[in-house]
Design a protein that fits this description.
There is one protein chain. This protein is of the alpha+beta class. It has 3 helices and 4 strands. Helix 1 packs antiparallel against helix 2 (32-47). The longest helix has 51 residues, at 51-101. The chain starts with 12 loop residues before the first helix and ends with a strand. The mean pLDDT is 93. It binds zinc ion (ZN). The site of zinc ion (ZN) has 8 residues, from loops.
Length: 139
Amino acid sequence: MPEFFDRRYGVDSFSLFLLAVSAFILGIHYMWIVSLVLIVAVVVRAFSRDTVARTGERRRFSRFAHSVGYGFYRVGKWLYTLFRPVVLGIKNAIQRAAQKRKQVLFSCPYCEAKLRLPRGRGKLAVTCPVCHQSFIKTT
Ligand SMILES: [Zn+2]
């Protein structure tokens, strides 16, 4: 039967896309009918000898896929600029919290000014920047 398979169009990216869609919707109620139609379309296209028409379909699909892809890219970029301040804000808050954990907060024994020192440095000679009194603080 070599003649039967002669000059048949075969399977292209559009057919693969249709197969993927049919597999995807197969599980949805009553959509197996659409699934079946898509599979039939794939088979008909594969055995078609009208390669000009089939190539045209593939080109239109390719153009459509590219515009959809570009649309996703644009939406992604837009969402990125929209949510960038929020993401940066969260990032900063996390960094500030991490910084806080590395510091000891305490009050100056002379003037009650709020001071901070790095955690875990042992005994430190501190001069209060507000009242300029010196004292020893264990961190
Ligand atoms: Zn002080």
